[in-house]
Each structure stands twice: as C-alpha cells, then as structure tokens.
Specification:
By secondary structure, the protein is α+β, with helices and mostly antiparallel strands. Among the domains are: 279 residues, Beta-galactosidase, Chain A, domain 5; 207 residues, Aldolase class I (TIM Barrel). 16% of the residues lie in helices and 32% in strands. The strands form six sheets. Strands 7, 8, 9, 10, 13, 14, 16, 17, 21 and 22 form a ten-stranded antiparallel β-sheet that branches. It has an eight-stranded antiparallel β-sheet with strand order 1-2-3-4-12-19-18-15. A seven-stranded parallel β-sheet has the order 28-27-26-25-24-23-29. 51% of the residues are buried.
C-alpha cells in the first residue's frame, strides 16, 4: 500500500521533554487516546519490572500486566530497570492504500516511548501508541554492547478484567484451520478436555493456549480483540491463559533452535495490540493493524491489481477430479518416466478441461484462472515429509503451458500459478528463482503458494521465526519479479500487506474447502483472522449437495446461495474467487450475475451491524463510482433486520437489485432456493431483510 501523507501533527520537542520530566517524578506514565476514552498507564513495580494497564470508558480492560523476556542462558530482561527518559508525541495523518476497503486510511494516535536500562546494562525501550480504537506496544532494543539476544520466551502478560466471553481456536504451531469455539475464558480448559472442539483434543503446548486474533466480549458489552502487528523476523505469538487468574501470557512459536527468537540489535519486536470498543462494528472497521506497519516499501506498485478469478479447484477438492496425472504406486520423481505412464483419466488440469474453464471465465468477465495440479509430482506429495517433491517448472504431459497461456491471453485473461511446497521450504527456496522466472516468461502475475504438511527441516514449524522469514523473503522476491502472492498455510497475516501490497491474500484459516463447517464460522472470521489482512476464502458455491455431482459423496455445504453471494461484501479481499464449477453457475445464471458484477476494490466501506459468529451486514461503495453493494450473512439462527439506506446520497433515486433467500430456504434442507427482486430506493428508505438459517443477502444499488 502506498504512502500518501496529507497531514502530520506532532508535539514540539520542548513540550514532550517537559511532560517526560514531570511524569518521571512518580514513576507512573499515562497516555490517552486522541478522544480520551482509552487510558494506558505504565510504571515499574518494586522489582523494577515494566508493567502496564489499559482502561476504556472507565472499565479496566487489561489490568496491571508485567512485561519482559527470559533468555536461554537463564537471565532475564525483565527486572531492575530504571527509566532513563520518556518521549511523547502525537500524529494525525492519512495514507492511500493500493487496494483496500477505503480510499484512504487515517492514522491518528498519541505515542510514548519509555527508555530504560537494567542492572546488567541492557537497554530496552517500550513504545506505546494509543488510538481511538485500541492500544499497542512493542519492545525496542537499541544498538548496544549486547549485539545478539537469544530469547527463550517473551513474558508479556495481558491480565483480563473479567471472565470475558471468548471466540477462540486452540494454540497450534502448524495450522489455524479450526472452527471457532465460543466460551467463557474460564471454560477454555474444559473445552480442550472434551469432545466439544471437534477435530482437536488438545492444543500444541497447553490446554488453555489460544491463537490470535482473539475476539472477546466483556460482561458489560464491550468488545476486545487481542492480536499482533508487523510480524517480522520473529515467531508468531500465541496466548496461554491462567484460567484461575484470567491472565494471558505470550507464548512464542518454537523452531528447531533452543532459542525461540534470536535477534540482533538494533531490533524491534512486533506490536502487541489490544483493540477495544463498545460496538462490534468498530472492531470490524478498525485499521489499527495496518497503521502499525511501515509504509509501502515498493517504488512501483502499478502492476499490483485486485483480481476476480475462477479455478480448476473445486472439482479437485470435492473429488470429482484429481491433481495427479497417473495412479502410479511406486513413484520417485527423479526417475519416473511420465511419457510411459498410464493417465488416470481424472486429471483435472488437462488441456481440454482448462480451455473449457478459460472460455467460461473469459465470457463472464473474470480476470484470471487458477490451475492446480499442472506440474509433475502430485502422485507422491502428501504427508511424506520429502525434501524434493516438486520442481515448480515441469508441466504434466497433458498440460501445454505455452499453448494454454497463449489461449488465455487471446481471450483477455491470465492464468494464475500454483506452487505447492508440501512443507519443504528448502526445496522451494532452491527452485524459487527459476519458478518465478517461468511465471514471467509465460505472463503469470499471481501465484497461490501452499505449505501443506509438516515444515522441513524437521523441528521447524509453520509459525517459527525461520519460517516467517521465508514467507516474507518469498514476498520480497516476488515483488522484484512483479508477482502477487496468495500464500496458503503460511503464518496468519499481521498487516504486512501495507508494506508489501503484492501480498494480496492468505488462507491461514478454515476456508470453503471444509465443506461442512457451521454457518457461524463465516461470521467470526472478519472479527479474527481477517483483522491482519484479507483471506482467500474461496466463496461462491451454488450446488450444496456434493453428491449431486461427485458420486458417493455425502458432503453438504452448509449455506444458502444468498449466503454465498453476501460473502463477497462481508468478507473483504482484493482477491476474490468464484469457486464453483462453470456448469453450476450456468444453472443459476441470474444469481451468478451478482458475482460477475460485484467489485473487488472499494472507495468506502461501512459495517452496518454485526455480532461475532452470529451475523454481519456491510455496505461498500465501488472504487471511483457511486454504486453501493450490500452483503449480509447469518448463522444457523438466521437474522431479520431493517436496513436503513441513509448512506446513500440525498435527492437521488437508485435501482436496487436484491438477491435474497427464498422464504422457505434453509441451509440444511433447501439451500438453493433464492429470490431476486428489483425496486427503486432513496436515502430515507428501509429494506426489510430476512436471512434464513445459514442464509444471507446481497444487494446491488446503482
């Protein structure tokens, strides 16, 4: 995202110094949000240990919580500190994203940096920023005699102000592909020890460990979100709860080294972020994670663009076709001769099938077509923990890479590349330059990368410092080649798309490929996983009974057609897929029209109403235009809502096309029933919405 500063306001150095000297006298520092509703206090306790607390609107959201580090040599950077100086300033600026939910983003905060030295001579700063929608802090190690710091654990506490309701997934070093649990904080352990969590019995490190972004709600009705921002050269942070004291402690993801993080001074950790508001919609609208990241690092962003795409994917995921070319059982990629292999007859990425998809995508105005299973090696890739599985450049015999790219270009669209690493990061890094060069040669400008399976080398995990450095290096190298990246199974995003806007998507959560997820899952992801950046959720399924086109399947997608349309508005991404098969869209061409028309880039976004895991209703104005698009989704309870159109321009008449659930629709027994109506509307009108269980609504207002 590009940097465009319209205005910057800062306190004078003299004023900041006077405030600092006055505050140091009693060892307690106070910093407030610009509107004064959030108050963060900092002090050193009797042991000289840093501690902080966060209060919102008179309520203690985070009670006094300690801070610091434990090193692998047994020493600590946590006690016996003395404050050297305190610097304060304020900033109010705007910047323009390359893509996003709004044309510009305001970055307005008060900041305070506390510089300290401990008894061993270690210097450490803690930088605080307080916004109207939350507070954040990070540790800074200035350049000093201690050049290398080997961190065993970061001991950042977040002491909750009560037994909050939590929407959480268990701590896991390798995946976030879980449905969200809803419970009191005190009940997390009992969930972990029971079968309530479905596909997980316990967490990777603790029965009370959870992942961020963690959504919370206080008994008084305030909404809180705990996350991190600007995760660079550091392990991802989990949170481990003491369910007696209700205190979270940071828990860094381990790798193969004894130290979870090895840093070289000068160094800045990621930000620890506490979002808070009395409105759920404020959490959805918050830009605090992006604001805490550095401005765009790329000089040229003209090649980065929002993308609406289709793919030869859903038929593979559902079992209608296969990634592999042959069913060879005795397989070694280095010696296998595909020219002598017998095709299995169900390989999806074959020339004829790909051309069929190209024709349909081009005829219906899509930008790109994702092809998975195009390259050799899929016969022996899953769960084998082999160093060499794919070379990322050699196509199967029935995939003519030159001819298919030429054909796509002649139709006005591009093919989208797929790189599955099977978790072998060293192999991908050995082949990455050659793989990206192949993309440049044939005109690909976007890649979906995958990291399915355990990470190699053994001992590393998906969210360790070493793995996180790889993901970022892949994005940087792709930027050099003018390639956009959509990384699946990588670490969950923390706003780095502001700095590297060619990171146009991630998965890092349970997406549509899990066909039987509960309807409420879609209504919690924007509160959690999407707070750090957009998700490639792959919506748009129209045929819910998988067995109707995959013989023998008993799977059923738990959604209605109107729900799937609503997702294109409620779940923001600059990279949106129409995931279903062409023939299913042809069957429902009138409903498919919404997917064809809905933009993927916006000038203005409004979250109208929402409740975590229950429902979301959002409205967005198209980039550079005056058309509005509304989306709504509901959990298994459904939702009735009177939609006010007060965001429209006054004294104008619009045409609204409403894609709604049919009155008798239901996500279980009548999911494909929908109704489309058209009416004239004005600013003072109200549209009654009826979203059935597992349903939704989509409205185009022009």
């Amino acid at each position: 995202m590009t940097k465009s500063i319209f205005k910057t306001v800062s306190m004078s150095a003299a004023s900041a110094l006077m405030l600092s000297l006055a505050s140091c006298a009693d060892n307690t520092q106070l910093i407030e949000s610009p509107d004064g509703d959030i108050r963060l206090t900092f002090s050193l306790n009797e042991a000289g240990q840093p501690q902080y607390a966060v209060n919102f609107d008179g309520e203690d959201i985070v009670k006094t919580s300690t801070m610091g580090f434990e090193l692998i040599d047994g020493s600590k950077i946590a006690e016996n500190f003395k404050i050297d100086k305190v610097e304060r300033s304020s900033s109010d600026s705007y910047w323009k994203p390359v893509w996003g939910e709004n044309d510009s983003i305001r970055d307005n905060y008060n900041t305070m940096t506390v510089s300290m030295t401990d008894a061993a001579g270690i210097k450490m700063d803690i930088e605080f920023r307080v916004y109207d929608d939350g507070a954040a802090f990070r540790y800074i190690f200035p350049e000093q005699a201690a050049k290398t710091i080997q961190i065993k654990e970061e001991n950042t506490q977040m002491a909750m102000g009560g037994d909050y309701t939590a929407w959480w997934i268990p701590g896991d070093y390798d995946t976030q592909e879980y449905e969200y649990n809803k419970s009191k904080l005190s009940e997390i352990r009992s969930f972990s020890d029971s079968d309530k969590m479905g596909n997980v019995a316990q967490t990777a490190f603790s029965p009370t460990g959870v992942q961020t972004s963690l959504m919370l709600k206080t008994p008084s009705g305030k909404y809180v979100n705990l996350h991190e921002a600007a995760l660079i050269d550091y392990p991802a942070m989990h949170l481990d709860l003491n369910d007696t004291t209700l205190v979270f402690n940071s828990w860094l993801t381990p790798g193969r080294d004894e130290a979870k993080a090895t840093v070289t001074t000068p160094f800045k950790t990621p930000w620890r972020v506490i979002m808070v508001s009395d409105k759920a919609t404020d959490i959805l609208a918050s830009d605090i994670i992006y604001n805490l990241n550095d401005p765009c690092a790329l000089d040229d962003v003209s090649w980065i663009h929002p993308t609406k795409y289709m793919g030869v994917w859903w038929e593979m995921i559902t079992g209608k076709s296969s990634w592999a070319y042959t069913n060879a059982e005795d397989f070694d990629l280095a010696t296998f001769d595909y020219s002598k292999a017998k095709p299995n007859g169900i390989h999806g990425a074959n020339n004829e099938n790909v051309k069929r998809y190209i024709d349909f995508a081009a005829e219906n105005g899509f930008d790109q077509l994702l092809i998975e299973g195009w390259n050799i090696g899929w016969e022996d890739w899953f769960g084998k923990e082999k160093d060499f599985v794919f070379d990322f450049v050699t196509p199967y015999p029935d995939f003519d890479i030159q001819a298919l790219n030429d054909y796509a270009h002649s139709k006005g669209i591009k093919l989208m590349m797929h790189h599955e690493t099977s978790g072998s990061i060293p192999n991908y890094e050995r082949h990455m330059d050659q793989a990206y060069d192949l993309m440049n040669k044939y005109g690909y400008d976007a890649v979906k990368s995958g990291y399915v399976g355990h990470i190699l080398p053994k001992g590393e995990t998906h969210y360790s410092q070493w793995a996180n450095n790889h993901y970022l290096n892949a994005i940087k190298k792709a930027a050099e080649k003018k390639i956009m990246v959509n990384a699946h199974e990588a670490v969950r995003p923390t706003g780095l798309a502001r700095t590297y806007p060619n990171l146009v998507g991630n998965e890092s959560a349970m997406g549509t490929e899990y066909r039987q997820m509960s309807p409420g899952h879609e209504a919690i992801l924007p509160f959690t996983r999407l707070k750090g950046g957009p998700m490639d959720f792959t919506p748009g399924i129209f045929r819910m009974d998988i067995g109707s086109f995959v013989p023998g399947s008993t799977e059923h997608k738990k959604a209605t057609v109107a729900n799937q349309l609503g997702l294109y508005v409620t779940m923001y991404s600059p990279l949106q897929m129409a995931a279903d098969l062409p023939e299913h869209y042809a069957e429902k061409a009138d409903a498919f029209q919404f997917i064809k028309d809905v933009p993927v880039d916006w000038s203005e976004s409004i979250y109208i109403d929402a409740e975590p895991q229950d429902y979301i209703i959002a409205a967005r104005r198209a980039k550079g235009g005056d058309s509005w698009w509304i989306g709504g989704i509901a959990d298994e309870n459904g939702k009735d809502y009177d939609l006010k159109l007060d965001f429209l321009e006054p004294d104008r008449t619009y045409t609204a096309t409403i894609y709604a659930d049919a009155p008798d629709a239901h996500y279980l027994d009548n999911p494909e029933a929908y109704a489309i109506t058209t009416q004239e509307v004005r600013k003072d009108d109200i549209i009654p919405l009826h979203m059935v269980p597992g349903g939704g609504v989509a409205i185009a207002i022009k």
